[in-house]
Amino acid sequence: MKKQVDVAIIGGGPAGLAAAISCYDQGVTDLLILERDEHLGGILQQCIHNGFGVHLFKEELTGPEYAQRFIDEVERRKIPYLLNSMVLEIDEKKTVYCINPEMGLMEIQAKAIILAMGCRERTRGALKIPGTRPAGVFTAGMAQKLVNLHGYLPGKEIVILGSGDIGLIMARRMTWEGARVKMVCEIMPYSTGLARNVHQCLNDYGIPLKFNCTVVNIHGKERVEGVTIAKVDENRRPIPGTEEYVSCDTLLLSVGLIPENELSEALGVEMDPVTNGPVVDEYRQTSSPGVFACGNVLHVHDLVDYVSEEAKIAGLGVKRYLSSSNEPQKEIKIIAGRGIRYVVPQRLSSGQATELFFRVDNVYSKGKFYIKDQDRILFQKSFLRAAPGEMEKLKLGNDVLSKIQSSEILLELVSDKGEA
User: Fold this and answer.
1) Sheet strands side by side (includes 137-139)
2) Structural domains in the chain?
């Protein structure tokens, strides 16, 4: 089957849905959403806890409630979508090849493409944890799916490795279901999740959070019987003599998310080694003209509200691209400097006001963010506390952009105190 559309959107999760709505509202109505699952909504389907939509809707929603608001808007606009449709390849002519059980192999020719594939969890294999290979080792997201969607309890005595948001939320969820969460081990000296989740999911239930600590062995033949944990040094290597055996029947891994960029890499778009996502401009256009990226496929977000905001920007970019109003401008690179782990977008191409999304590389208190053009300070903003688990945002107005003289600007942090 062959089909032509103006815009193909790969992924029907929060990013893809919001991007489709944004395109439609900009007058780009010949759209097609391709989703490999049997339902729209992406990961939000299994996130039944509240806390979504606080920024966007000014109320607390569960994940399915948040997703449904966007699904309803897609349905109201009659934006077409295909479920159970796995995209296999995208070529340089913006031809999308996907497979669907009813229609077989499909060839979809698009004028623009929005990448919104989300991300996946890092597994035990990626961590190379020594030990046997018994049942009872799950990623936190898989445990969440088993409990929330299928009604299965993965175990009764739980150890969680990693303090990412899904791990913190599952510590609370497993406690509610009657399991005993013995501890959360974090290899870093700070939590990699939101501060509110540490308080609401661990502190409120008396679950210990051990920093500078990791799992160095897994024990058990048929089923997990216990794990050995150990303290780590400043290079995050286990310290001999600090090993401690902890009995448990389940190990949950919450050790980071990896953007699903196999399609992006095969297409040949430029990738950022830190975010593991494409390098984009302020309209979320990749190095391949007409190909845009948004949401967790671009960089891992901690709030879905920010995903929706970013998807709206991608929709504006698609409209601008299709209307051929993207006049050539002097490109400006944005460099992540001292104290900054990464910044998105990585380049500016339009000279229009934009917002920078970035993360710091440690826990800092009482400092300032600076934007510099060589040695000239263009902009500064004070902060009381900044942590890697919480994304920061800075507005770059036209007043700042008009002062830029060189081909790159620097974003850096100066702090009175690093807490880590």
Assistant:
1) 137-139, 250-253, 157-161, 180-185, 209-210
2) 2-120+258-326 (3.50.50.60), 123-255 (3.50.50.60), 340-418 (2.60.40)
